[in-house]
Amino acid sequence: MTFGTIFSFYGNPGSGKSTLCNAKLRKTVFKSGVSVGTGLTTFSESHQDGNNLIIDSPGLADPIKRNEAAKQIESSLKKVLNIIDNIDYPEVTLESGRVRLQDVETLNSILKAITVEFEYGLIINKVTKQVHQHLLSSPANLQACIQMVEKQPLRTLIVKHMSELYDEDNVLVEDKETLDSLNGFLESLPRNFIEQKDVTTVEVKDYDKKVKEMELLMTKLTEQIELEKENNKKLGEKTLKLEADLTQQRLESKESTERMMNQILDMNQKQIEQTAEFQRNMQEQMRLTTEALNKPPVIIEKGGSGPCSIM
Ligand SMILES: Nc1nc2c(ncn2[C@@H]2O[C@H](COP(=O)(O)OP(=O)(O)OP(=O)(O)O)[C@@H](O)[C@H]2O)c(=O)[nH]1
Ligand SMILES: [Mg+2]
Question: Predicted confidence band at 256 (pLDDT cuts at 50, 70, 90)?
């Protein structure tokens, strides 16, 4: 018998692995639902789907079942050769649940157990509307979210939180958009060839310690981010004040320029009026002079008593 691709889903309890496996199969094969205190899936289970094999697995976050879960995951990574005799290079595609610090550590433990080159896809599941917008608004936001994953995924799929699944048992995803994007995503991932010898122990000895270390690091990072935010806020306020001052100065200088322009216009107007007045005076003066010149001369006779004309 020949298998096509093995799709293995890994992630912590309650992250939605069984639900996603069922969504891929379009039927409720794996039990999904709420399990208080521990994971619902405690053993790796597989289901044949045509030529493909779908593997559901338990998570590592539960401290009581952790060692057993690690063994289950390890054997699921090696499972291919246990169950298929006539295939030399099995094909494996890895998935993972949403990213919390525990999820990051689970992911890191599994990724470290594979000693050959491989690519995998990461599914960030049950993402609320606001976080969904935040993650999609910039690649940097998504990067910040998965920066602690030691081997970065080739691709990441962000699946919106589906309220109809909340707190439910064995519910099949019906949302077409989610189903299409899940199938498209799974098909888009390259196939890896991982042999049994390429898988070592899934190490969970220091699981809690590492999660604590990450928590500390995250706290420091968050503090740094807060500090930077505060500085940026102050810088922003300063810039706004400077801009306001500059606008005020521009306004004042515009007003004083206008005042000066008006003064110049006034002066020009006065000069025009003065010139006109001067011209009027000159004309009057000339008129008077001309009038005086055009008057007949007055002859005063010597010893005479009245004027007489000159012939
Ligand atoms: N709100 C919401 N609930 C979801 C979503 N996906 C799964 N669930 C619910 O979450 C619960 C856990 O889902 P499972 O698929 O059983 O999770 P799991 O990762 O297989 O969990 P374990 O087997 O315990 O490791 C179930 O009640 C699901 O109906 C989702 O996208 N949104
Ligand atoms: Mg499960």
Answer: very high
| CA–CA gap between residue 247 and residue 226 (Å, rounded) | 31
**Which tokens hold the place of 82?**
């246990």
Tokens 């299409």, residue? 180
Q: What pLDDT is stored for residue 186 in this prediction? A: 93
CA–CA separation, 110 and 200 (whole Å): 9
CA 83/CA 140 separation, integer angstroms: 41
Task: Tell whether ligand 1 has an atom less than 6 A from the beta carbon of residue 18.
Answer: yes
Identify the residue whose C-alpha is closest to ligand 1 atom 22.
13
The pLDDT tens digits for 82-138 are 444 334 455 666 665 556 888 889 999 999 999 999 999 999 888 888 888 888 888
Helix (H) or strand (E) holding 97: none
Ligand 1 binding pocket mutation candidate from 32, 167, 178 (most atoms within 8 A of CB): 32
Distance CA 206, CA 193 (A): 29
62 sits in the region (left: phi over 0; alpha: psi -120 to 50; else beta) called: beta
Dihedral over Cα of 104, 105, 107, 111: its sign: positive
Distance CA 71, CA 202 (A): 7
